[in-house]
Amino acid sequence: MPVLVDVQDICKIYNPGENEVRALDHVSLSIDKGEFVAIIGQSGSGKSTLMNMLGCLDTPTSGKYYLNGVDVSHMTDDEQSDVRNREIGFIFQGFNLIQSLTAIENVELPLMYRGVAKKTRMELSKAALENVGLGHRMDHKPNELSGGQQQRVAIARAIAQAPPILLADEPTGNLDSGSSKEIINTIKKLHGEGRTVILITHDPGIAKQAKRIITISDGKIASDEINPDYIP
Amino acid sequence: MEYLKSALSSIKQNKGRSFLTMLGIIIGIASVIVILSIGNGMKSYVNSSLDDMTNGAVTIEINQKKTDRYLTPQNLTTIEEAISEIYGVSTSFSTYGEIHLKEDHIVNLLGGMPVMERELSDGIYKGHFYKKDDVDAARAVGIMDQSSAIMIFGTDDVIDKSVEISFGGRSIEITIIGVAKSDEEALANARKARQSGETAYYYHSIYVPYTLVTQKLGLNDERITSYKIYTHPGTADEAALRAKSVTENLLNLRGEGAVSIQSFASMAGMYNNILNVVTLVVALIAAISLVVGGIGVMNIMTVTVTERTREIGIRKSLGARTSYILLQFLTESAVITLIGGSIGMLMGFIFTKIAEQFMSFPPVISPMNVLLVVAISTADGLFFGIYPARRAAKLDPIEALRQE
């Protein structure tokens, strides 16, 4: 399998000087296409910084990050926006839907930024919402949907334009256990369809759902192993 | 299109706030429209009154302080022939006299040529104007206004009536051969003045052949230092310049600046310039509210950006470029001011209509002004939207997403 994510010796340092904070300390890791990886760590471990880095929301202080073969470690804001739009589907803890837009309008957003025509946009968005089982709720506003449903809208938004990577940041953090299971199953199903999934969490129970578990602590990778308990 | 949709839905969501923000723009645009309309109305009123007053007559004057040369009646004929596109040329000797009847009346005896009939804005009511042979024979005939006839004689049925006019110690008897039409307002005034015996406050013009003044009365010799040309509509300036140049040639005064044009058109131009400046100044003062309104828009858009920081973060994480966010918020502020401007325009129309009831002249709303106002209000929004929109576009997506 080709390498999709190739992080080489990345450091992220806040407040350089005496009180500097090394959020990431010489981190290297590589993820192949089609993998299902969980990155687990306590709060303050640097996992959020790593997730921002992997999601091209942030740039490293030093080191290189090749995403899909392209060096994305030193890019302008607009270049980063384009990379995010093309390569990454985000699923956030707080769903991050725009409240004033309907479900389908939310799903359309990344397609709009890519310049996809309205008709194609509608078709792709509809297909994505149907894929996550929300074909009947397309014209509802987020506040008319349950937490689990909102997260599924967010997932539909992440997959609508078929990016190579799904980056899920605590996707079940705001959900009850029933909805959590539902979302994890949806993510597993998407992985089953061939998508690369990176799941960031602090919950070992959630991390156990992944094929490979990377533990991060104090800005360093503490362990990186194949999950023996993985159930496809 | 997407920008517009997003802007409209955001404005709709904050209806009350958006309207309050628009208020400054509404007031500004409404007052600018009202002021410009009144200014335009005043201008066209002044122009049409001056037009009525002159009927295309332009006076050419030879300044006696700069030269002692003058024209003869024969010269006038030459000038008339040299300028083809005019009705004619006339001398204009004017002399004051008095009529002593039941009451005393002051009259202005205007000595001219038959073409002077063009000065009668409403034409002849009864009888006729004097002819060329009246001028040649220096006949003692005259034409007066209907309103003057009513004030002097108590009736406008005065054809063939004789009246004695005295000048200092001498006097002359003139036969009225024509009555010029007066408008309703003047007639009503004349009747009222006649009834209450207050005619002394008026003076009356009587048109007579110039030869009567020069030859019979001997009040003026035939030295012509000023004359009038009667021009076709729209050609006054051109004809006046021709007349000036012909006069200068005849008197050999080229380049001396001794011959001048006293056209009412140039007077109207002067009035218009003054009115333009006044209108502009008042409109600029009104436009200050556009600046204030614009600052209001800037203020509320900054609040909107702060409120929607998370939304901006989401959009950016999904791949929205800086320019997209910038345009989204610029569109929103431009739409606010455009809607405000349109409402303001409507209010301006209404206020203009109301103002019309209280004014002696109708305000004129010109389409150019309306276009200008729409453009200004949109530009206002764009200009004052730049700061908040740039703030939004420059937000760091990580920071923005962290916002609750």
Give your account of this protein's structure:
The complex is a heterodimer of chains A (232) and B (404). Chain A is an alpha/beta fold. Chain A has one domain (34-59, 76-226): P-loop containing nucleotide triphosphate hydrolases (Rossmann fold, 3-Layer(aba) Sandwich), CATH 3.40.50.300. Helix content of chain A is 34%, strand content 28%. Chain A has seven helices and ten strands. Chain A has a six-stranded mixed beta sheet, with helices on both faces. In chain A, strands 2-1-4-5 form a four-stranded antiparallel beta sheet, with helices on one face. In chain A, helix 3 (103-114) packs across helix 4 (118-131) and helix 5 (147-159) packs parallel to helix 6 (177-192). With 404 residues, chain B is α+β, with helices and mostly antiparallel strands. Chain B folds into two domains: 2-48 and 270-402, no CATH class; 64-257, no CATH class. Chain B is 58% helix and 18% strand. Chain B has a six-stranded mixed β-barrel with strand order 3-4-9-6-8-7. A four-stranded antiparallel beta sheet of chain B has the order 2-10-1-11. The longest helix of chain B is centred in the last third of the chain and has 44 residues, at 264-307. The two termini of chain B are 29 Å apart. At the A-B interface, helix 2 and helix 3 of A face helix 1, helix 10, helix 11 and helix 13 of B.
**Approximate shape of chain A:** globular
The coarse overall form of chain B would be elongated
Task: Report Rg of chain A.
Answer: 17 Å
State the end-to-end distance of chain A: 19 Å
* Sheet of most strands of chain B: 6 strands, mixed, barrel
